[in-house]
UniProtKB/TrEMBL annotation:
Organism: Anoxynatronum sibiricum
Necessary cofactors: pyridoxal 5'-phosphate
Protein name as it appears in the record: Aminotransferase class I/II-fold pyridoxal phosphate-dependent enzyme
UniProt keyword annotation of 4Fe-4S present: no
Entry keywords, A to Z: Aminotransferase, Pyridoxal phosphate, Transferase
One MF annotation (Gene Ontology) recorded for this entry: transaminase activity
Domain of life: Bacteria
Family: Belongs to the trans-sulfuration enzymes family.
Coiled-coil stretches: none
């Protein structure tokens, strides 16, 4: 029967193609919802008796593809994908605590995580004690109502490696759970779940994406039941990842190992170069033999890789830092990390701008501290550019 134009506009073009060949890459299922033949089938999918999707806030085929890869590479039973690293982090924490509970966390954390713990959790009457991540200070901080220890594999911007084996040991002894933010390391370098952590969280915005074009967060859990709890809360708060972003991240993961390996090799070269430069006071990179946590990194990290992030202090302080950023040409000031190009960040005015002078000092950040995210360029070109700009400094 012939219909009117508006009806064709609303119905046509949504059938899956009739084809014996299949797309080589996973199709992007840009569908917020899925349709059913009848109520019985809808009911069976809701009950879990038939495989299927219902509504993308609760699940989408591209999410599942991303989760499948992440669970595999991180050695977990289950994964969850969300709209940002902060969503992954806050949901993972909320899934582990009730009103009146207590958390112990490392005293050097991503700014957003620190603010969430300091300013948001207290609205739920959840107390957080921030300590340096050592057995002694954690033991001292743990109370009868402590549920969680929260740490980051590599601290920002001093790039100290936290001894995750010791963190696992103390959590087991105290009967508390361990959540690790593994954003700077990725599963290529470190697998906290294999070491005994309960939950790993990522800002997928960084190395998992690697191309500075997606904001996302991922959680991988040792136990499926923990993931179910996180997802239950996630469906209520609602920070879901767009299927398109999930598709981009699947694309990105194809090259994760190659990228992280090259980022790390370039960072090691850069750290060694800067360490010898007369305008540089100090370099912070766990790959350097001098680094205070080099041995921990060697013990925990795979393939002798130490990640793509390093920091350094310029002898000329703030003036020199500002000038270097101005004089560098292809190396841009970018308040994030892990893209394909080498970038610099100025922690005192970006990631750590909420800290007062005393807190900055305690975190080891000076006015001459710069953080470098090493890219995938031919590194001779990057060193050449630095050489020109560094030698211009007074
Ligand atoms: C960027 C970052 C986050 C926050 O992730 P978003 O994707 O920006 O929400 C958390 N932890 C670390 C270590 C980060 O670098």
């Amino acid at each position: 029967m012939e219909k009117r134009m508006q009806t064709y506009l609303t119905h046509m073009g949504s059938k899956l193609p009739d084809s014996v060949s299949r797309p080589k890459s996973l199709p992007i299922t840009m569908s917020s919802v899925f349709d059913f033949e009848d109520v019985e089938m809808l009911d069976r999918v809701y009950a879990g008796d038939a495989p299927g999707y219902i509504y993308s806030r609760n699940g989408n085929p591209v999410h599942d593809a991303l989760k499948e890869i992440m669970s595999q590479i991180d050695g977990g039973e289950a994964s969850g994908v969300y709209a940002s690293g902060m969503a992954a982090i806050t949901l993972s924490i909320l899934a582990h605590v009730e009103t009146g509970d207590h958390i112990v966390a490392a005293n050097v954390l991503y700014g957003g995580t620190y603010s969430f713990m300091k300013n948001e959790l207290n609205r739920f009457n959840i107390d957080v004690t921030f300590v340096s991540p050592t057995i002694e200070s954690i033991t001292e901080a743990v109370r009868h109502n402590t549920r969680l220890l929260y740490v980051e594999t590599i601290s920002n911007p001093m790039m100290d490696v936290v001894d995750l084996e010791k963190m696992v040991e103390i959590c087991k002894n105290c009967g508390i759970k361990l959540i690790v933010d593994n954003t700077f390391a990725t599963a290529v370098i470190c697998r906290p779940l294999n070491l005994g952590a309960d939950v790993v969280v990522y800002s997928a915005t960084k190395y998992i994406c690697g191309h500075s074009d997606v904001t996302g967060g991922i959680v991988v859990t040792q136990k499926r039941a923990v993931m179910d709890k996180i997802d239950e809360i996630a469906a209520l708060y609602g920070p879901m990842m767009s299927p398109f972003d999930a598709w981009l991240l699947v694309r990105s993961l194809r090259t994760l190992e190659l990228r992280v390996r090259q980022h790390s090799i370039n960072a090691m070269q850069m750290a060694s170069y800067l360490e010898k430069h007369p305008k540089v006071e100090k370099v912070y990179y766990p790959g350097l033999a001098k680094s205070p946590t080099h041995e921990i990194g060697k013990k925990l990290f795979q393939k002798e890789l130490f990640g793509g992030m390093l920091s350094f202090d310029l002898k000329g302080g703030e003036t020199a830092a500002y000038q270097l950023i101005r004089d560098l040409d292809s190396i841009r000031l970018v308040p994030s990390l892990a893209g394909v190009s080498t970038t610099l960040s100025y922690p005192a005015k970006t990631s750590h701008r909420a800290l007062d002078d005393k807190e900055l000092k305690r975190a080891g950040i000076s006015a001459g501290t710069l953080r470098l995210s090493s890219g995938l360029e031919d590194f001779d070109d990057i060193v050449a550019e630095f050489e020109i700009a560094l030698n211009k400094l007074p």
